[in-house]
Write a structure and sequence with these properties.
One of its GO terms (molecular function) is phosphotransferase activity, alcohol group as acceptor. InterPro entries: ATPase_NBD, Carb_kinase_FGGY, Carb_kinase_FGGY_CS, FGGY_C, FGGY_Carb_Kinase, FGGY_N. It comes from Meinhardsimonia xiamenensis. This protein has 505 residues and is of the alpha+beta class. The chain folds into 2 domains: 241 residues, 2-Layer Sandwich (Nucleotidyltransferase, domain 5); 216 residues, ATPase, nucleotide binding domain (Nucleotidyltransferase, domain 5). 37% of the residues lie in helices and 20% in strands. It has 16 helices and 24 strands. The protein has a 7-stranded mixed beta sheet with strand order 18-19-17-16-22-23-24, sandwiched between helices. It has a 5-stranded mixed beta sheet with strand order 3-2-1-5-15. It has a two-stranded antiparallel sheet with strand order 4-7. The longest helix has 28 residues.
Length: 505
């Protein structure tokens, strides 16, 4: 077969791999970029300078490192952060920065209005998801209202993976898994775009063509071949969101299997035999026609550790900072000396769906050190993750097996705190390369070189993290949940003040 190329565009970094037909990694490459935050609650990327430039740089680096001829690459698959909202003109040129996934909360007013007009139950029944900051439909409506000149010039509104595939092939496509996040514009029963719920958002012909993730969307065109070094005519799959590709990379395939991804955000995917109907969780058709996915995600997790390092560990060498912070945290007991962290620094996604939620360290006294704060931060993310897993159980979808993946699995303190807080065992595969490895497998699947079950051979299980029964966590977890409820009104008032409002009477 030769080899397959997988590239993933993340929130802060893009990664790529070249993999042979046995799953052996021939080359790896990565490139950093930044998330643009022009104002609180907004999050953006530059499609050309961040997404496409990363793809070009990484592809050339992989081909050079592996020493393969471009013609030896049997297929290409890419994934990226999602769902995003990017308007492009008739030539495919971006008309503005891409609006990112649920961490961007600019469309809160549109979410509230559409939910009121259509009805929450009707949206959930037709679209599989409540309207939250993860939904693209309200963001398109925000664009129409707040940037009418850009909306008028937009030939297509696409997401991150769609843009990469368009640059490679000239085709404008989107996979069903990603499209389900375009509520209220996607009908999960018909698996097609719909406009009867909200006919005034956008004409459906301005959305990408629907496909399944491992279908071939097109072939590398001459212009893309010149830029990337790939051979013209190389097959390119439709692609998907990064989290789904990451789940593929660790073998999440059968109903009851769950991926717990430790990245810039915590993201959770459980494959199910039937659709899970719960407004607190997200739903999408899985990457293949006969399965479903129930999903959840925090708004900040790895992003929060970066924030802490950048503001409170400036005295530490950057490449040693996380290890040194973890060592400081390890000197403090579980429970961080009675300190709680609410990790809602960009609002919160599941299960709260509260874009106005705010972060806090609660319980500080003069004995607390930086180590206490960092431990409390990791434990706060762990408690928020436990809250998500509790929601799955309440929805009747308790997972049978949980596979941990992502950069955060290298942080043993964070990993163990999550198992302890949630009372779950986590399995870790031999390779935790992430979504790009899953992309390479999907490319091999599309090329007919592997069967879906071959991922267990590509990436066998390596270790497990068992939960411990910690009295401190049993005491703190209900306090963590109560702290949000009891401070919610204050957080909302502070958010209003930060937007230039006045204090409530």
């Amino acid at each position: 077969m030769g080899c397959t190329l997988g590239i993933d565009i993340g929130t802060y970094q893009s990664k790529g791999v070249l993999v042979d037909e046995t799953g052996r990694v021939l080359a790896e490459a990565r490139r950093d970029h930044r998330m643009i935050v022009p104002r609180p609650g907004w999050a953006e990327h530059r499609a050309e300078e961040d997404w496409w430039a990363d793809f070009v740089h990484i592809t050339r680096a992989l081909i050079a490192e592996a020493g393969v001829a471009p013609g030896e690459i049997a297929a290409v698959a890419c994934s990226a952060i999602g769902p995003c909202m990017l308007p492009v003109d008739a030539a495919g040129r971006p008309l503005m920065n891409a609006v990112l996934y649920g961490v961007d909360t600019r469309a809160a007013a549109e979410i509230e209005e559409l939910t009121g007009e259509i009805g929450a139950e009707r949206i959930l029944a037709r679209c599989g998801n409540a309207l939250t900051s993860q939904a693209v439909g309200p963001k398109i409506l925000w664009l129409k209202r707040n940037r009418p000149e850009i909306f008028a010039a937009a030939a297509k509104v696409m997401t991150s993976t769609s843009y990469l595939v368009m640059k490679l092939t000239g085709e404008c496509v989107i996979d069903h898994y990603t499209a389900a996040n375009f509520a209220p514009l996607y009908d999960v029963a018909r698996r097609d775009w719909c406009d009867d719920l909200a006919p005034d958002i956008i004409p459906l012909e301005r959305l990408p063509r629907l496909m399944w993730s491992a279908e071939i969307a097109g072939h590398v065109n001459d212009a893309a071949a010149r830029e990337t070094g790939l051979a013209a005519g190389t097959p390119v799959t439709c692609g998907t969101i990064d989290a789904a590709a990451e789940a593929v990379s660790v073998g999440v395939a059968a109903p009851g299997e769950m991926m717990l991804m430790y990245g810039s955000t915590i993201f959770v995917i459980e494959v199910t035999a039937e659709r899970v109907r719960d407004a607190r969780l997200w739903y999408a058709p899985w990457l293949f026609p006969d399965r479903h996915a129930a999903m959840a995600g925090l708004a900040t997790s790895g992003t929060l550790t970066h924030w802490f390092r950048d503001h409170f560990a400036r005295d530490l060498p950057r490449d040693e900072a996380f290890a040194r912070l973890a060592a400081e945290a390890e000197t403090t007991p579980p429970g961080a000396g009675g300190l709680l962290c609410m990790p809602y620094f960009s609002g919160e996604r599941t299960p709260l769906h509260d874009p106005k939620a705010r972060g806090a360290f609660f319980g500080l006294d003069l004995t607390h050190t930086r180590g206490h704060l960092y431990r409390a931060l990791l434990e706060g993310i762990a408690f928020a993750t436990a809250h998500v897993l509790e929601t799955y159980a309440e929805a009747g979808a308790t997972p049978e097996r949980i596979f941990a993946v992502g950069g955060g699995v290298q942080n043993t303190l964070w990993l163990q705190a999550t198992s302890d807080a949630a009372g779950v065992m986590q399995r870790i595969r031999a390779r935790t390369l992430g979504a790009s490895y899953g992309d390479a497998f999907l490319a091999a699947l599309a090329a007919g070189a592997v069967d879906e079950g071959d991922i267990a051979r590509w990436n066998p299980e390596a270790r497990r993290v068992e939960p411990r029964d910690l009295p401190a966590y049993r005491a703190l977890y209900p306090l963590f949940k109560a702290l949000y409820v009891q401070t919610r009104d204050i957080a909302h008032a502070l958010e209003h003040l930060a937007d230039g409002g006045t204090a409530p009477a």
